Amino acid sequence: MLILGIESSCDETAVALWGEEEGEVISLVSSQVDLHSRYGGVVPELASRRHLETLAPLLEEALKQAGRSLSDVGAVAVTQGPGLVGALLVGMESAKAISLARNLPLLGVNHLAGHVYGAFLEHPMALPALALIVSGGHTELVLLDQKERFTSLGSTRDDAAGETLDKVARFIGLPYPGGPQVQKQAESGNRSYHHFPVGEMENPLDFSFSGLKTAVITFVEKSRAGGVEPPLADLCASFQEAVVEALVSKTQRALRVTQARNLIVCGGVAANRRLRERMAELALAKGVNLLIPSARLCTDNALMISRAGWSLYQQGRTIGLSDDVDPNLSLFDA
Of 60, 83, 143, 300, which residue is least crowded by CB atoms under 10 Å? Predict the structure, then answer.
């Protein structure tokens, strides 16, 4: 059975066809970076409007390239939340229309669950697994058990890691999206140029990046006030290393607490080469199985929504035409 996946939670419009036996049939993503880069971040109203303009033609193109039609689809999986409410609605209403017209099961996928299940697109499912979900809006440590239930272990109490990368990048004059730009600069920089502290929380598995953001901005402002412009590459390398160290150290703690033998690292920031390198080192040192998607599957895509939808379908967890999107949808309600 082929599952049509639709993703529109933020600033990427994506559609995909995936089946348990066939694997990836087609995956198309239409980015809005060109639209939002002039504003230094995502403008929700503009994102929703672009989804409206893009989704139907993108679906038509995907079916054409795949040589398939909607009659080949057995179920529709769509991101239900979390995300931008207007953007989510475009995807949901489109999915409902297809579900109604074709009498197909409708599967409401949690976007964060999608990132986790995206790891199983390229790796065999291995449970229980500790998952680090790290993206622009979320930094979470969760446990996915053998019954495919999520348990929260730790989360960010202020800025997410990706959000911090973007905000600092904007402050130092790098274009949007900031995370990849920081990585690019950091590749030729000295990671030991300056030590930036990362805050600790009462729960040792919780994250806090607000203090790091402030520390970097304060350092740059003081340097400039003294007539010194910090070397961009060295600054980015030191800043990126602080973010990565926080993610790796807390993941290591979570491995010790849970005794998990499988580690998933997913979300947009998981495409960062330094983070991937450090996580590979951690997995090797601890003797755990690392499941990390290729870079193209770390950022928002509809293949991960299709894969997560398949899991919901197997559990009989469909939604109805009266169900709505939820911009604050929790991963832990079900």
Answer: 60
Report the domain count for the chain: 2
Same domain, 134 and 262: yes
Q: What is the CA radius of gyration of the chain?
A: 20
**What single string gives the DSSP state of each residue in 168-227?**
HHHHTTPPSSHHHHHHHHHTTS-TTS--------SSTT-B--HHHHHHHHHHHHHHHHTT
Question: What length does the chain have?
Answer: 334
Could you tell me if 99 and 229 lie in one domain? no
Q: How far apart are CA 125 and CA 92, in angstroms?
A: 27
Residue 37 pLDDT class (50, 70, 90 cuts): confident
Number of helices (H) and strands (E) in the chain: give both, helices first. Answer: 11, 10
Q: How far is CA 166 from CA 131, 170, 231, 236, in A?
A: 23, 6, 18, 12
Which domain covers residue 210, as residue numbers?
124-292
**pLDDT-based confidence at residue 333 (cuts at 50, 70, 90):** low
Strand partners, 319: 106
